[in-house]
Q: What sequence folds into this?
């Protein structure tokens, strides 16, 4: 069925059997951006948000989200993550926060979904913490930028 591994021959969704695969080092890097209005961006940058340290909380949320990926996405395998790193970069000119999440493991399946989930949860947390100031924030450009290990590598 189009080479999609999460479907059986009858087209039913199922969890892929990775039992026969050997463990290898796996790494994935994902990025995404949230665009804020000037007022919300100024509050974030000054550290005066009523809910606290926006980027500090978003970093912890991103890590927690990545760790819970298999609970959120039905056909993802639970993975023993060996590393999760979350970085934020501010763009003063565009009032944007750029999030990068790097996930690593030694396992039988990749960590792309964990990296992508980490980015989205981090950005959602920024939205949540600043929504009282700006409900027009936009999360955009979430994408996988690097994958290493397994059958193939990828980078953009």
A:
């Amino acid at each position: 069925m189009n080479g999609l591994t999460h479907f059986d021959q009858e087209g039913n969704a199922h969890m892929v059997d990775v039992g026969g695969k050997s463990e290898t080092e796996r790494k994935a890097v994902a990025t995404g951006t949230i665009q804020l209005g000037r007022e919300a961006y100024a509050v974030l940058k000054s550290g005066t948000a009523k809910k606290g340290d926006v980027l500090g909380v978003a970093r912890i949320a991103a890590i927690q989200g990545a760790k819970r990926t298999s609970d959120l996405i039905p056909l993802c395998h639970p993975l023993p993550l060996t590393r999760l790193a979350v970085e934020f970069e501010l763009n003063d000119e565009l009032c944007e926060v750029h999030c990068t999440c790097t996930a690593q493991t030694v396992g039988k399946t990749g960590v792309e979904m964990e990296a992508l989930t980490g980015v989205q949860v981090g950005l959602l947390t920024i939205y949540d913490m600043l929504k009282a100031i700006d409900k027009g924030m936009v999360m955009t450009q979430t994408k996988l930028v690097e994958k290493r290990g397994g059958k193939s590598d990828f980078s953009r």
About this structure: The mean pLDDT is 92. DSSP finds four helices and five strands in the chain.
